Amino acid sequence: MVAIPNYQYMTPQEYLDWEEQQPLKYEYINGEVFAMTGGTVNHGTIGANCHYQLKTHLRGGSCRPFIFDVKLGVSENGPYHYPDVMVSCDERDKRATKVIYHPCLIVEVLSPSTEGIDRGKKFQNYRQISTLKEYVLISAEQMMVECFRLNDNGLWELHTYNQGDVDLTSVDFKFPIELLYEDVILENSEQ
Question: How far apart are CA 57 and CA 65, in angstroms?
Answer without folding.
Answer: 10
